[in-house]
Amino acid sequence: MAECGRVDSNTSHTMDKSITLPPDEIFRNLENAKRFAIDIGGSLTKLAYYSTVQHKVAKVRSFDHTAKAAAGDKLYEISMQEEVTARLHFIKFENAYIETCLDFIKDHLVNTETKVIKATGGGAHKFKELIERKLGLKVDKEDEMTCLIKGCNFVLKNIPHEAFVYAKHADSEFRFQTTNPDIFPYLLVNIGSGVSIVKVESEDKFERIGGSSIGGGTFWGLGALLTKTKRFDELLQLASKGQHASVDMLVKDIYGGSYGYLGLTGDLIASSFGKSATADKDFSKEDMAKSLLHMISNDIGQLACLYAKLHNLSRVYFGGFFIRGHPVTMHTITYSINFFTKGEVQALFLRHEGYLGTIGAFLKGAEEDNPNQYSWGENYAGSSGLMSVSPDMNPMQRARSGTFPFDMLEMDRLERQLVNLPLLQDPSSYIPDTVDLTEDALAREYWLYCFEEALDGVVKRAVASQPDMPEAALRAEKFRQKYRHKLQTLRQQPFAYGSLTVRSLLDTREHCLNEFNFPDPYSKIKQRENDIALKYYQKAVKSLDELSWEEKQFALVQGVLAGNVFDWGAKAVSDVLESDPEFGFEEAKRQLEERPWLVDSYDQWLERLKGPPHKCALFFVDNSGVDIILGVMPFVRELLSRGTEVVLASNSGPALNDVTNGELQILTERIAAMDPVIEAGLREDRLLLVQSGSSSPCLDLSRLDKVLAMVVRERQTDLVIIEGMGRAIHTNYYAMLSCESLKMAVIKNSWLADRLGGKLFSVVFKYEVPAGKPNKDCGAFSPS
Amino acid sequence: MAFHSFPWFGMDIGGTLVKLVYFEPKDITAEEEQEEVENLKSIRRYLTSNTAYGKTGIRDVHLELQDLTLCGRKGNLHFIRFPTHDLPAFLQMGRDKHFSSLHTTLCATGGGAYKFESDFRMMADLELHKLDELDCLIRGVLYLDSVMSSGPSECYYFENPADPDHCVQKPCTLENPYPLLLVNIGSGVSILAVYSENNYKRVTGTSLGGGTFLGLCCLLTGCSTFEEALEMASQGESTRVDKLVRDIYGGDYERFGLPGWAVASSFGNMMSKDKRESVSKEDLARATLVTITNNIGSITRMCALNENIETVLFVGNFLRVNTLSMKLLAYAMDYWSKGQLKALFLRHEGYFGAVGALLELLHPS
């Protein structure tokens, strides 16, 4: 059964009316809210609304250079513009606060175009009158199961690391699954008061294939009878302290040991509560609760496996209030699934399981806006993360502690629809990140420390980027607090937003900067660097052209690598650059490690260049300034000269000093004006500038702009070049592509260099040819 | 065929009950009578002249099979049971009656054959011949179904399981029974797919069985025997304890084809304090029975689907004097499979393991 049968906890919904909400943190952007949905369960209310957010964005605009302005003029101007983006807000709080929350919403709701509120959940009818009276909105009830499935599809599609496997005794309890673009078919086992087993085959096709009456309600109801304990979470706490073997009859109680003939171990439960049938004694509450928990979890697990087998499904997600945020039940269900399928099926759980109903109800109401046509991204700055509210704390305790417990999820509508890079060898096994900090405690410690250390510098640069705004310092301070708090949370709960990675730490920082209207702290630095680098372009190209063919090929690679040393994102480099602005390109080249490099397949690359040209190269670029202008562009120029088409993929939005698509457009035009090869490339449509769809210093090849994917396919791309530490080392170091690939980076972090067996400024030059490709000259290379 | 000396016993020592079958020869010649040692006579007299032994041993007289021919001998087969925790008393009796002097092999199956093997040796000087319980179970089932007996048919089913007023027990036989799903409900439950007499596999099992019913009933109602628990259950109303589909949806949940009377959440009403205070012990006993029975039905049905088997045979002592559960199972199989599955039952519910053990004594496989 669905969770519709949930029963109210014994807390009255009128308590804590006097509590004041922290308006900065909860119900954000309410003034622009235009569409609501609510899911009221047995104890928790989940509210959803759609709102628009005004963001400051940095835009670049080319100056008119036909007027031949005096030398030293800037290449382009930067302006801060307001941009409106769409955001979905989801807030979860206890039913006890519903009236307070409704009052708050009513008081802050400016836009009241909305006439209805979509509602789902067992408690929806109970609070219908209250909602209608308070908000003046008509409550429109939606089918619970439909909402649940819609919500589930949405999070599985849009939130990377949404699903996880729970392993109680592992180094990291939560093992997140990579987002598989093919989410269907799957089985959803919803454990509310009863159990519903639903097979989901597509966006609109699902079927309740079975269920069981033994569910969360059985645990709660029977548990309350047996132990005289009223609350569900208290029962779980009891259970976690008990010993089921004193109540259950085990195989060894019958056999004296294992039942070897059938391979049943002695500790297996032969008969739940079997001992209470024969032994005339008192059993402890803890032991009975534990026995009950095992009985119910095993039973559900067994049925789920039988249904999964019958329908030949291997992905089984568990949800419902029995599971929600309770490590105890996730553990027992996982154990049961492992036992019954011998590990063939994994029990999967969802980070945002509690929100599925309200997300679905919201989507039902928003169908005219086609939310499913967009890609969405989790806003780390505004989302609370997994386990933000301890399930062990009951509402009375929380009320006494004076905090208003709520949990939030914010989803930003992305400007671009995101898809897989068509050149991934196996999209279902692709993991962008090289190191999972959730599992690697040492690496986690280092990077958390590193990001905390770098915070002062980031704050300083953020303030400096907005010299005309006096309140920038205050905002920057708020940013510091927010990001520091995130880092602290991640120290305690590394799993809060899925797998913790260097990428997620960087992205979280970008989200937090955006949150406080620092859309592009590096805009001025990038501008200055671009201006300077551009002046050297012709000279650089000329000196390259004087070299012999082989010398030139090496110099081009060296140029890309040296250019990549110019990176304000890496602390070691930004220190040098800030103290010595004259630190030049040539000096950077000298800093480079001598060959053989840490990873060095240059010889294979050179051999390949002696062969026929590539049809089309996709180049994921990195930094502004020297990197893109003096490193990447000459390299691109050479590819074009060879007859290879080039697609330059740059970020859609700013991240650190990475060149954005907007900036790259202007830069390329300027270079084209000086360089006939680039000019011809643009004119003949053999050089394309496309945006990646990302605003991250790292690169997730499974979430790229749909247009980019289309271009890649159309042009029959046969070479992918990935440049820089963020894109080629922190991410994609192990990415397997179905065509030739070249990963180039300089390691500008001594800890990471050490980890990889190198030293500061070690070079990674990783040229790979997928196995089975006809080109025999260049065998696949693997790092030493 | 080698004649095996008397007495002929088969024993099944389960988690809760010990099941004992005893073959009483009725064709003893005068010559034999003379040769028969006194100990053997005394045991025979003790077992056949009583219907209760000690405080807890019971002979199920109504199950006795008379005029049976076994291994060329004519006689009656007796069915005796006592709680496993009284096994020491049984061993003491064996010792008192000098059972070991008879030099017989005691064929025993069930987990207790392993667990108590040393107790048999130490306390009663008896060597057990241990046998696998599932092998014995299947052998026993097939044997009892096949023997010609003057009594009622071993196998039966319920006609019109959906209609309580016209639901009647009808005899049948296990002719061409394969493939067969054999569900043995003892303290726990084992589910076997049987393809022939010697070809079977254990599909799965569940720990929610007879022991769970009785265990929970003892805790919830303070009762102490299976009979008491069943008696209470027969007087209770589970709908006061369980939350039904109609309690949530006001009627059927049509979108998913769930009838209003179906249980949505077993013990679901007990989440509410008021309702906890208003239910009776009888209601709780009934809900426990319904919950356990329906769950077994549910798992059985899924196994039948997965194994592609249409005939289901329910055995085990949970079904003893438990028409309520049998009718529920018959109904559940019929309703949820839309008539595809047929539930069959056997009169000697829990004794097949013991019978199988006896057969092993006479015809070693």
Total beta strands of chain B: 17
DSSP strand tally of chain A: 25
Helical residue percent band of chain B? 25-40%
The coarse overall form of chain B would be: globular
Structural class of the secondary structure composition of chain A? alpha/beta
Keywords:
heterodimer; A: 784 residues; alpha/beta; 7-stranded mixed sheet; 26 helices; globular; disordered N terminus; disordered C terminus; B: 365 residues; alpha+beta; 8-stranded mixed sheet; 17 strands; 38% helix; 25% strand; nickel (chain A); ATP binding (chain A); nucleotide-binding (chain A)
Structural account:
- The complex is a heterodimer of chains A (784) and B (365).
- Chain A is an alpha/beta fold and 784 residues long.
- Chain A contains 26 helices and 25 strands.
- In chain A, strand 6 and strand 7 form a beta hairpin.
- The longest helix of chain A is centred in the middle third of the chain and has 26 residues, at 285-310.
- In chain A, 54% of the residues are buried.
- With 365 residues, chain B is α+β, with helices and mostly antiparallel strands.
- Helix content of chain B is 38%, strand content 25%.
- Chain B contains 13 helices and 17 strands.
- Chain B has helices spanning 30-35, 38-49, 87-96, 111-115, 117-124, 133-146, 210-221, 226-235, 245-249, 273-278, 281-307, 323-336, 352-362; strands spanning 8-13, 17-25, 52-53, 57-59, 65-70, 73-83, 106-109, 128-130, 155-159, 168-172, 180-185, 189-196, 199-206, 243-244, 263-265, 311-315, 342-346.
- The mean pLDDT of chain B is 93.
- Chains A and B meet through strand 10, helix 4, helix 6, strand 12 and helix 7 of A and helix 4, strand 13, helix 7, helix 9 and strand 15 of B.
- Chain B: InterPro entries: ATPase_NBD, Type_II_PanK.
- Chain B: One of its GO terms (biological process) is coenzyme A biosynthetic process.
- Chain B: It holds the Pfam family Fumble.
- Chain B: One of its GO terms (molecular function) is pantothenate kinase activity.
